[in-house]
Amino acid sequence: MSNTSSNTNAVDLTKLFSRNFELQNINDGTITDITFDQSAVGDVGCVVWDAALVLCSYIDKIRNVVQNKSVLELGSGTGAVGIVTAALGARVIITDLPEIVPFMNHNIQLNQKVLKDSCSALELRWGNKEQMSKVKQIHFSEGVDFLLVADCVYYEEALEDLVDTIVYFASPETIVLCSYEDRELGNKSELQCKFFKKLSEHFTITEIPIEKQDPLYSSPDIHIMEMTLSHQNNKT
Fold it and tell me: Is the entire prediction scored with pTM above 0.90?
């Protein structure tokens, strides 16, 4: 979700439609439905994009790795990725612009029986040092284990702030998972290249091979990148 959105782009909670995501219990095979409401009115954060579902499915495959870990999601929109990650046993903070927070809280409440207070929604404007510092001090004083970013590169004016925010929250132990879909419309492809070029100044970036992703929720035009701070950029 872009830093440039305004209250005119707030999600209309009276025009919602749902999408479900299934989690299977590996012990007894039972299925848990996670429900995400989407809105017919709003900016890019009001629906669940395919790249978010692909990332949800990959996190499901590595559920043992994320259990009991601290997780921060940036530009959460519907909150889908963070909510699934919390349902898998992580402690998750999902974040977006202030006008999106009620929408994220709505989806948290839809799934509260599964989440059991393991997921919270907060306002976080990319590049806002005061907000970033507050979130870090209160919720991630011991660091962020996983930082999630799903299909957030839409507006060039927000690009630098998004990169700065990722770098700010990352520690040498942080794993950043970023998913995105190839798009040829406008300058989206150029923006993605610029985004990862800026991130490569700080991180070692590798792509998760499609054969390691969920066979149902994967596509050649949707990518999951894993990033860790480069040795020369490790913070003390």
Answer: yes
